Amino acid sequence: MATDARVKDLLADELFTRAQAKFNDAGDSWPKKEMGFFFPGNENTVDSCALAVLDKVLDEDQLTIPNKKREHLAVVIKTSTKASDAIKIIALTALKPSPQ
Amino acid sequence: MIMKKQLLFCLALSLIVLNESSAAANPTAFLRTVDNQTYYIAVTIGSAQLSEGDLKDTLPKKLMTGMDPLSQYIRSQLDSKTVALIQKDNPLPSARSELKRRLTSDLKRLLADPGFYSAARFAGVTLRPETSALLAQDPVGGRRTFLNRMLLDDAYPQDIGQNSNVPGLWDGRDAAGELDLATVRGMVVASLFQKGRLIPTTIEGPDKYGADFRIEFSNADVLKDGLDSLQVAVHQYPVDRTTRSGFSAVVSTEVVTSLAPTNGDCFAGIPLEVQVDPGLVNPSYGDERLETLLTYLEAHNPTVRVQAQDRLNPEPRTLKKFDYSGDTSTRFVPCYQLAEDAPTGTFDLRFDYPPEAPIELRKIFYKANIVNAAHAVTPFSLDEGNIGKRALEQNLDVGVQFKSSVADKTEKDAAGNDVAVRKRDNKGTLDLRLAPWLNVLSLPKQGSQTFKFLTPLFIDARVSTGKIDKDNLSLNRIVFGSQFEIRKYWRPETVPSYHRFLFTFSNASDRDFKQAEWKGGFEWQPIFAQVNNPLSFRSKNRKAGLDPEGAVSDIPVKIGLGYQFVPLFGVEIGKTWRNKSPFAAIEQSNFVRRVYFGATLTLELTSYLKSTTKNILYVRGEAPQDRLHNYFIQTIELPFPSFTRQSSNSAFFSFERGGQPPFATPDVNTFKIGYRVQWDGWFGQRR
Known about the structure:
- The structure holds 2 protein chains of 2 kinds.
- By secondary structure, chain A is mostly helical.
- Helices cover 66% and strands 0% of the residues of chain A.
- Chain A has helices at residues 4-18, 20-26, 35-38, 43-61, 67-76, 83-93.
- Chain A is globular, with a radius of gyration of 13 Å.
- Chain A starts with a helix and ends in a 7-residue tail after the last helix.
- Chain B is an alpha+beta fold.
- In chain B, strand 29 (591-606) and strand 30 form a beta hairpin.
- In chain B, helix 2 (59-65) crosses helix 3 (69-77) and helix 4 (80-88) packs antiparallel against helix 5.
- Chain B is elongated and about 130 Å long.
- In chain B, 36% of the residues are buried.
- Chains A and B meet through helix 1, helix 2, helix 3, helix 4 and helix 5 of A and helix 5, strand 15, strand 16 and strand 27 of B.
């Protein structure tokens, strides 16, 4: 399920894979860093990383979300977004819609 | 009066003393209710709860390689999957978390084992005096588990967080017999404080959710302002028949509420996150409570106030009925929409629920610095160079320049003869790039690293003041059209490598539309990580030297020299549809066909000084007698602090020499000084 803890693990994996030197440099305080710390000056690589985590969470939960929500997620998570906020944003985006 | 003061002093003193010996993680004091009218505090002391956070990364290796009897014993008791995970030593963070989860589970099983301690097994371990004292009592049940945790802490002091200094509540049983729970509870002495004020209470038995005991209070006014400063001091509780312990704990709720960040599911609204505290061992009360909260929220909206940063006073707003995501077992998130427009620019927002609302909502929900969706200006997009080929990274890029050039002019002397005179010519220039919609395409599909952008309309122009003459014409260029780009990353990493394939359809002309051509073009820009190292990539976060904990500050310190080298290769095919230029020196075909190649080298000497050198060589198929044209520009840029988060501005100096398509005018040779403003984030779009 898209718990914050699970998203945190998956984002840590992505950052470790894509920005290992920066991730190691940040150490345990990596969630306090802005995404631009790992991918400076490039919104595409931030988008790519955030969407990869979102897609993994959705895969695990066997959920799909409208494309528009993916677009919105990419707009909200930017180089100036803290990794901890990115975790929360991804977790909330991947929540199952409740029946009204 | 004096006695009352003395009592308060004694209680306060005991609270301070107990605070020193209490552990934050184990004892909890949760505010609960059964009817939303009367509340009580459920105190759970817990004991020896080992959590994943207690285990350091060094522990697994120590357990696997340690030759001491205890490590060998623990190793033999571990689950085979745990052993496999340790041996695999997967460096991925999620694998480490999984290992800690499994290891915690295995160790918890061992801690519950009454036979965990043996003198031979702990022969080499130095025990704390309190561990030795407890060991001497040979405790049973929960206290045995507590002893085992203390033993484990003593055996691996560097590898396990010390968290075992609050023993559990005595269950009334020992070798001397059994006491009933009411008698055990009678040994508990506890107080409730609010802002240092003592609140009258009574101690009652456990509730149905598993608390050790309840603290009841009759004065409901205590909660009128929420949970502010409510603290429980358990002065003493029985650990066994003769031993007493104590602690203090801040009162909290099991369901936590907060304004959450805007997200993909609640993009234009204000999400309120209502969730059972994820750290809870027993979330049963919280699960029930979520249903109550959802019912309340569906029937009641908070009062809302917003305050724009440029306004003195806040303004009221109302909310629409919300949609929500999630479920009522762990978390749900209502997404509130303002019924009226939000203030423009940056603003703060505050929700207030009425005093009779559920306790979880009796607090100030405040969110500061809310801005519309936007992102920071991308550095390395300041492109002073080719009109029509400059990167489309911003919605608006406008610059004003002052041009000063020197050229030979023919003038009549006093005798009426033509003489060449060296004269300086000064002119002002407006430089404009405008792309209201930077991109109208979607993001990459799942698993793809290819970004596609379509800018349906852009205008890229540089026009100067005064009459157009042969000395300044190449500045007077207007290009408009649309552009499609494929940006293919093969290394989407900190320093990425990628290809940019740009397809442009445009119309290029001089300022007065004397010569105009439409054309389609393709350009390839390979960007390699090895030569793509801007200063922002080289920044390291500063370790705060004065901070005793050595916290890492978020202030980036730029180190070294930033550099980026981008080669480019392109082709253009089109048609000249108007040719009335009086300056066209050479006859040329109307069938426009060109190839060009060049490169841009950017050097960031410091954060405040950037040098950009660009050179492009054109090979013109439409003019065989004037086949080669070179264009060179050198820019020195001095970025200023931004006015807003979505804009940047800078002063620049540039030297420009050569010609650009459609080559309708003579080449330039100018020095310019200018000021540039860039702005992006329109319609939430970016490239």
